[in-house]
Amino acid sequence: MTFKTNLPAVSCPALSGFSVLEVRGADAAAFLQAQSMNDVTALAPGHWHWNGWLTPKGRVVALFALLRLAPDRFWAVLPDFPAAELQARLQRYVFRSKLALSVPPVVVAAGPQTATPAPDQAAGDETQGIALDFGGHGGPRTLWLLPSADPALAPAEAGTDRAWYAADLAHGLPRLPAAAEAWTPQMLSLGRLSAFSLRKGCYPGQEIVARTHYLGQAKRELVRLEGQALHSGLAVDTAAGTAAGQVVCADDSGLHALAVLGADAGDDLLAGGRPCRRLTLLDGLARPA
Fold first, then answer.
1. Cα separations (Å) of 281 from 137, 167, 199?
2. Does the pTM exceed 0.85?
3. Are residues 83 and 103 in contact, defined by beta-carbon separation less than 8 angstroms?
4. 86, 53 in Cβ contact below 8 A?
5. 12-170 belongs to which homologous superfamily?
6. For the chain, which terminus, N or C, has the lower number of CB atoms within 10 Å?
7. Cα(115)–Cα(123) distance, rounded to whole angstroms?
8. Burial label, 157 (beta-carbon count in 10 A; 0-12, 13-18, 19+)
9. Where are the domains of the chain?
10. List of the chain residues with pLDDT < 70
11. How many CB atoms lie within 10 A of CB 74?
12. CA–CA gap between residue 109 and residue 237 (Å, rounded)
């Protein structure tokens, strides 16, 4: 992952709400393989994929980008769920495993677009900063993981936060409210992001995920909406008044959102009693692509 970043001073505004959890030790890979929903054994050092942690009932607790720094070392980049809270919850399952969970002195930031060897391959190192390709069909963007004292870091900017959040929604990356734990990976259409595996061994919620897939029981899906006064938890109905689903997350303008709706909800929709319309989810954010 070595390259020279040469980032200008104060060029990378921190992204609000993002944090990093480190999992390190001889048993780190086995621990993550047993706890997370994607296949960690398929992840080579220097590469990353989407992953998550589920409840035993198969509901998503936290969604994250998992970067394998070395055979025995990982960083989980969390867009919403606080790393310290996930550390405390995962610590209950460590038992005698040879690993340590910690929150490293790393800041997640937006910054200059940087080419990486492949969409799922990181560039850089911990000293100079690590770049991840978060681009998709909506355009290029680079997420930076920088040391907390890096001179390239700048304070969070509302405009940058809004633009990043909007791009996440447009590409179908759900920004989950704290303590939601309401949706399965299939309801959130996380297969679009290659974020879970049906071939790996057991993990919390695996039975629900597998049963939903193999019995064809995925009756709800993620939909991108445009409307007015959209917000998390808002009910979405058909024009005939039948319940269709619920808004998962929305931007702060209330104009754009992601919702989990019944697969047969149709196109004539009301959100909070106001008309709204479907927008096409953009591709290109799956990792590996």
1. 10, 10, 26
2. yes
3. yes
4. yes
5. Aminomethyltransferase beta-barrel domains (3.30.70.1400)
6. C
7. 8
8. middle
9. 12-170, 219-279
10. 1-5, 217
11. 26
12. 37
* Gyration radius of the chain over CA positions: 19
Provide the β-strand partners of residue 143. Answer: 110, 132
Please, where are the H alpha helices in the chain?
28-35, 83-91, 158-170, 206-214
Single-letter amino acid, residue 233: G
Nearest by Cα to 100 from 109, 108, 90:
90
For residue 194, the one-letter residue type is: S
- Note the pLDDT tens digit of each residue in 247-263: 999 999 999 999 999 99
Phi, psi of 34 (to 5 degrees): -80, -20
Under CATH, to which class is 219-279 assigned? mainly beta
* CA 289 distance to own-chain centroid: 15
Sheet holding 100-102, edge to edge: 48-54, 60-70, 73-78, 19-24, 100-102
Task: Say how far apart CA 78 and CA 19 lie, in whole Å.
Answer: 5
